[in-house]
Specification:
Elements: H1 8-21, H2 31-44, H3 49-56, H4 61-68, H5 72-79
């Protein structure tokens, strides 16, 4: 009963704290950056848009298509995050 959903701010705080502990720095940090990094990693591994969308919890591939248009010069730092250290 006393448990409530986590707010966006709390989730961002958890992610940023973990990134700090792992020594990961950069301008783009937080949960959304991790979603982009995960999507880019899966796309780079050759997974289909459907598979990436399922992983991200998207209902349609249209929502996932945003990740197929990644501007590497803008998201390079995000895409290079080592997701293995977060598990």
């Amino acid at each position: 009963a006393p448990i409530k959903p986590l707010s966006r701010g709390v989730i961002k705080g958890i992610v940023c704290t973990r990134l700090d502990r792992l020594g990961i720095t950069g301008k783009r940090r937080g949960p959304h950056a991790l979603r982009h990094a995960a999507a880019q990693h899966l796309l780079d591994q050759g997974l289909s848009m459907k598979a990436v969308g399922d992983f991200l919890g998207h209902r349609s591939t249209a929502a996932t298509s945003i990740y197929a248009k990644v501007q590497l010069n803008v998201l390079r730092e995000v895409a290079e995050i080592d997701l293995e250290g977060l598990l």
